[in-house]
Amino acid sequence: MDEALDCQRCGACCAVFRVSFYWAEADDAPGGGVPVTLTRPVGPLHRCMAGTEARPVRCVALQGEVGRAVACGIYEQRSSTCRSVVPGDAQCLKARAAHGLESGPGGITSAGLASSGHASAAS
Ligand code: SF4
Ligand code: SF4
Prior knowledge:
There is one protein chain. The protein has 123 residues and is α+β, with helices and mostly antiparallel strands. The chain has one domain (3-112). Helices cover 11% and strands 15% of the residues. It has a 3-stranded antiparallel beta sheet with strand order 1-3-2, with no helix packed on it. The protein has a two-stranded antiparallel sheet with strand order 4-5. The protein is globular and about 40 Å long. Bound molecules: iron/sulfur cluster (2 copies). One iron/sulfur cluster is lined by residues 14, 19, 49, 59, 61-62, 72, 74, 78, 82, 118-120. One iron/sulfur cluster binds next to loops. Residues 100-123 are annotated as: Disordered. Pfam families: CxxCxxCC.
């Protein structure tokens, strides 16, 4: 794997955008999974991860240090927004650039992309 896009050494997309999603993805709705206590309201129909509603942005579920070693504390319960980010896509690269990570020393190669994004996108 291209370690430049190892999500567990990045986490940038959890600390740049507002990570919002439909309210029913939270666990106070039937079938919802995201712990509602870790969310904040965004209008009548959406919520966002706490910590991403204002600057400086950092999701409360993000553990570790961006650009070094991170993990999502609710990985199995994370929202569809979090799951939608693909390492190497436009949101990913924008987030990485915002943290000065750019494409990393190994550059970006399709063969090097991780299979699933660590985290977020934003609205
Ligand atoms: S998807 Fe991109 S920005 Fe998000 S953690 Fe992975 S490499 Fe970093
Ligand atoms: S992947 Fe986890 S840490 Fe990142 S924004 Fe989503 S909930 Fe937060």
